[in-house]
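Hi F.,

I've been meaning to write this up properly since the lab meeting, where we talked about keeping a consistent format for the predictions we share between groups. The idea is simple: the sequence comes first, exactly as it goes in, then the structure tokens exactly as they come out, then a line or two of notes. No screenshots and no reformatting. I'm using this chain as the first example so we have something concrete to point to.
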Amino acid sequence: MQVLDTLNDIEHCLDALKHKVEIIRGDLTGDLYSVDILMTRKEAAAYIGRTVQSLDRLCRELKIKKTYINGQPRIRKSDLLSFKGIEIVKTPKTDSSRSELENLISRFK
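Output, unedited:
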């Protein structure tokens, strides 16, 4: 019973650590590969702390990729994170033969 309590405490601490790492990275979505949402130019500019004109210049210089949806320009959040220097890496699929704790530990190795 004491071992189970210890494992639960470790799992709780790892969850808290994961959340703090996500805060540091500026990404609160839960996992790094699910950040591929589309933003308007105004939202994207505010996200990176630049003006819309500055964002447009970065798009013209091909530093940030602009996508058109129904004729409207949109910017992927993953492109903005890459511009900010945050590398987006897909986490490996979880192995169902391992416990949740083992899967979580393997993500931080």
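Notes:
The longest helix spans residues 2-25.
The chain has one domain: 2-107.

If this format works for you, I'll send the rest the same way.

G.
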